[in-house]
Design a protein that fits this description.
mainly alpha
Length: 222
């Protein structure tokens, strides 16, 4: 990775540091609330889920859409970067900004399931699938932000991706090979789980790769 690219990635982490801290703190507060009982679990889960989704949307909007709208890209013209290089640095920087809180909050959710006696360990495969889907959700929003300049278009993407989280949670829970083991004493890592996980991973890679392919043809930076 070029030195300038690394500096641009570090810039994204620095610019959004307080957003990352706030989202991480809110997510862990949700996990602590979830450990307090049945009602607390429902409230804490919503807080945890909202913190991750909101972080992804805000990073995409502030990191790409607002930067494009405010025309704050003039400084980039003085840098020895092609549009493709800048899009690559922007994607890596925003991805790193999301991955750090996402990894911590995902690990926290897994630890909560393993540690709390009132939560069945059979929920673990479902939790892993949900965490990876949230990463896919961010990848789709970021891909759209880097390729769509229309505010209405981005609004539609955000609405659809937010709706997809609820649909995913309901849909996966209704798959017999997943749902029937969610209350089991031990997690079941069957073929259906691995197939779903592989599909999520493949779609995530595809969504993150698409801006790199389109960037090679563009003449503007964003």
């Amino acid at each position: 990775m070029k030195l300038l690219t690394r500096k641009l990635v570090a810039k994204e982490l620095y610019v959004y540091r307080w957003l990352l801290v706030g989202a991480t703190a809110a997510g862990f507060a949700g996990l602590l609330t979830a450990a307090s009982g049945e009602v607390g679990f429902n409230i804490g889960f919503i807080v945890w889920l909202t913190a991750i989704i909101a972080l992804g949307v805000m990073l995409a909007l502030f990191g790409v859409a607002s930067e494009r709208k405010d025309r704050s890209l003039l400084f980039v013209l003085s840098l020895p970067l092609s549009p493709g290089d800048y899009v690559r640095a922007k994607l890596l920087g925003l991805l790193a900004s999301f991955l750090l809180p996402w990894a911590g909050l995902s690990a926290g959710a897994v630890a909560l399931i393993l540690v709390m006696p009132g939560i069945a360990d059979g929920l673990l495969p479902y939790a892993v699938l949900l965490c990876v889907f949230l990463l896919l959700n961010f990848a789709l929003v970021l891909c759209a932000a880097l390729n769509i300049s229309s505010e209405a278009g981005m609004g539609g993407v955000i609405i659809l991706t937010n709706m997809s989280v609820s649909l995913f949670m309901m849909g996966v829970g209704r798959i017999p090979e997943v749902g029937q083991y969610m209350l089991a004493a031990t997690p079941v890592w069957n073929g259906t789980f691995w197939l779903l996980l592989a599909a999520e991973a493949a779609l995530t890679v595809l969504a993150l790769s698409l801006p790199l392919f389109t960037a090679a043809r563009r003449r503007d930076f964003l």
